[in-house]
Amino acid sequence: MNYNANLNPRITDEQIFEKITEEQESIGYYNLPFQNTTQIKEYAKTVKQKDIAIIGIGGSTLGTFAIYDFLRRSNSYDKELHFFESTDPIDLKTRIDCLELENTLFIVISKSGTTIETISIFKYLNTQTKIDKNNCIVITENDSKLNSYAKKNDIKTFEVPKDVGGRFSVFSAVGLVPLAIIGIDIDSLLKGCKKVYNSFFQKKEFYKPMMTKARFIAEYKHKFNINVVFSYSALLKGFNQWYVQLWGESLGKLDNDNTNQGLTPIGILGPVDQHSFLQLIIEGKRDKTVTFIKVNDFENDIEIPNYKLEGLEELDYIENIPFSKLINYQADATIRAVQDLGDIPCDTITIDKVDEYNLARLMFGYELLTSIVGQFLHINTYNQPGVENGKIILKNKLKNRK
Amino acid sequence: MNYNANLNPRITDEQIFEKITEEQESIGYYNLPFQNTTQIKEYAKTVKQKDIAIIGIGGSTLGTFAIYDFLRRSNSYDKELHFFESTDPIDLKTRIDCLELENTLFIVISKSGTTIETISIFKYLNTQTKIDKNNCIVITENDSKLNSYAKKNDIKTFEVPKDVGGRFSVFSAVGLVPLAIIGIDIDSLLKGCKKVYNSFFQKKEFYKPMMTKARFIAEYKHKFNINVVFSYSALLKGFNQWYVQLWGESLGKLDNDNTNQGLTPIGILGPVDQHSFLQLIIEGKRDKTVTFIKVNDFENDIEIPNYKLEGLEELDYIENIPFSKLINYQADATIRAVQDLGDIPCDTITIDKVDEYNLARLMFGYELLTSIVGQFLHINTYNQPGVENGKIILKNKLKNRK
Questions:
Q1: ipTM value > 0.90
Q2: How far is the alpha carbon of B340 from chain A, nearest alpha carbon, in Å?
Q3: Which among B120, B235, B288 is the nearest to A318, CB-wise?
Q4: Cα B260 → chain centroid
Q5: How far is A227 from chain B, CA to nearest CA, in Å?
Q6: Which of A111, A181, A362, B272 measures 20 to 30 Å from B217, CA to CA?
Q7: pTM for this predicted structure
Q8: Interchain CB distance below 8 Å, A88 and B148
Q9: How far apart are CA A172 and CA A28, in angstroms?
């Protein structure tokens, strides 16, 4: 008798690459960079309303908010996005008060079409103003109950493809429609996605760094179970929130051995969180990787003036430094301080400019990284079975209430 | 020869209690509930400006923002707080654009008096409008360089006591002065603090739960190295950020054995993060404790109306539910789903109402809990030596730039 085996080989980059390549047949987000945007852009031009209210939650809003939050301060859009996601009654009333209701377009976004928060808020909004085909559109799967509602009321719809999951849907109609309406260049967004897609699948510049990073994160998942993104720009707050959903919901799973996996995402901002979370990174347990994100060129910069404050002469050395330089010096000093410790894995991503193309590269890159890490971990990156039990309990509570 | 020892006894609650009691001699935040607020209230009445710009970062702003964020939507204050903390040039310009500069009071807050972000932003603001004793006050230690600046320019100052650390300073002048100015009842805040203080130090209702929780967190610090606060109200976003600083910066330390400690704080919001982080809690690695925070009474509630959406009849069962009930049903369903798993430590804190007294109880309670956990961990809860190296590197970079 002869027996020969290699039961636990170290998986190769090439094997992972093949799996990712195969995944494209069933996972729709990989195709989004190549979609035709004509219809969306044509529709966007017809929108007259000034306030755009997005009624959605989770994957229906986080990506759109990330892009809007990054760009809105350095662009003067003549329309404004408003996000309705929480069922907190005080928050909800405050957000409604910010709308000029007669001059608002309502965009109802729910992939499944029956998201309880979204439909509750939408019902309430219907009692605050008349909502019909003239001031409402719907973005959902094409056979959902929300789609039926739209059809029965002659309301325009855009489709969320069935094979595009909520947290991977920002570059589908979910994100592109509201972003195009306020004037964001959605073709530049997709150009950024394509750049990353091609570079990875043609095994060019991004291939090796992505594989190396994903492998490290997966292989050290027990030692470094927390992945911190430390973004040195206030404009990346929305991106951080989007990253937390993408990473946490995709990678927090039972694996094929029924073991609880889970890489915990944390998003923090520099320099503000130098005065908060940084102490924990530096002296805390060595359970974290840190990815720094920097913005190279903020454009339209301002400078710390040569303005004397009597008594505070000690700080005169900061004069004549552009703020964009200061924040990047702060990032570099923190990176150096972390590297000096020698036992905290860290890397740095630099965004060239505050524009559509560069943010989309970052975001599509993170989607791809998430997929690759998921393959290394032998999990289903694209479902979220863990939240179903809570939904059932809630439904029973609501149906059986007195 | 005889040798008898008990080298590693399990520390008793009583021993911890004694240490906390002793700590009060050198740690100032314990005394803040009992301060006289007359001077602050008198000054607050004299402020005429409508926009209140707080220039500060970290402990100088997070607590104030937490309280303001919690209360502002259900109160109609006739003044508005604006926070200047980031050196991001685009963010900074946007925040300045929101001010009516001639109708703004500038409050410069820095405990040390030489915080680089704060002084940089303050210098810049000085070139945007005339700043002097008529539209500026300073909150700092009484021998700081910022205090010298104020004295030389006849600018009013409030003191941050030396023995009150930044992240424990919200109930000192740091928080009370700006909050009193916009009309928040600071005596109710202190009443909430006193309630917790007395209950703990007189070993009444809060004593046992706090000790039990702190002991659990400390004794299971390796298994459960992440402490999630899951707040079911959009109004608690600022509280979550404040908690992250308090917990992370206080408890991320080298202990007396020179070992890296570190309990990682995470703040999330319900129901929004049911669609994001919850999957990771449910199916991810069992490395997290979860504390749910609920608001019992939102007041001025609104209800999901009895409004039919043709095609969406499936969801008619949500009609006539007040939103405050819905969000609490959502919390309860999530709590139940987490409890059903049987291996995730969780607890629930319920706030009675959206007011000063109740939020202060929560916040002072968290400060006390942080102190107790710090004692269990044998660390210095009140310093932050880990961030010093980065500051030195930055200073050298700035001084030696070409």
A1: yes
A2: 9
A3: B120
A4: 24
A5: 12
A6: B272
A7: 0.96
A8: no
A9: 10
